[in-house]
């Protein structure tokens, strides 16, 4: 997508999905930190260099792993016919299945984050009788 002028719907949609997911997740994490004024994930790691480094290296590996399928999809050997790639049209059943799975996963993650924030605001004394 970046080097050539060939833009395919499948590549654009997959890239937009990853960007949308990243923006939503970043927005939620920023909202959570602004609301709580702290990030508990760092409390036991901040004073130990190698634990702190390990935390960030794990984050880098996780982001690379999550974005790897889109990186591979956007490579010329996979996407562009003359280099041996497949169809450039957004018409395969797997395209539709991918859109549906993304929408379901995105919705589940967004609802879970909303529930997490809501449950942290409501006192436990009000919530526990409904679950016991």
Count the helices. How many? Answer: 5
Shape: flat
Give the ordered list of helices and strands: HHHHH
Which range does the strand content fall in? Answer: under 5%
Count of distinct structural domains = 1
Largest sheet: none
Low-confidence stretches: none
Q: Report the count of strand segments.
A: 0
Give me the secondary-structure category.
mainly alpha
Radius of gyration: 20 Å
- Provide the residue-averaged pLDDT: 80
Kindly report how far apart the N and C termini lie: 53 Å
Measured as a percent range, the helix fraction is: over 70%
Describe the structure.
By secondary structure, the protein is mainly α. It contains five helices and no strands.
Q: What descriptive keywords fit this protein?
A:
flat; mainly alpha; 5 helices
Summarize the structure.
This protein is an all-alpha fold and 132 residues long.
SSE inventory with pairings:
Blueprint: H1 9-36, H2 49-73, H3 76-79, H4 93-121, H5 124-131
Helix pairs in contact: 1-4
């Amino acid at each position: 997508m970046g080097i050539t002028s060939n833009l395919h719907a499948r590549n654009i949609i997959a890239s937009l999905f990853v960007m949308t997911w990243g923006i939503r997740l970043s927005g939620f994490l920023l909202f959570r930190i602004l609301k709580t004024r702290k990030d508990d994930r760092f409390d036991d790691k901040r004073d130990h260099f190698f634990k702190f480094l390990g935390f960030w290296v794990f984050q880098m590996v996780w982001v690379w792993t999550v974005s790897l399928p889109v990186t591979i999809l956007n490579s010329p050997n996979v996407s562009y016919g003359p280099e041996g790639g497949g169809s450039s049209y957004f018409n395969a059943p797997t395209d539709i299945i991918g859109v549906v799975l993304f929408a379901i996963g995105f919705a589940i993650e967004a609802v879970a984050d909303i529930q997490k924030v809501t449950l942290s605001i409501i006192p436990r004394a009000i919530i526990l009788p409904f679950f016991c």
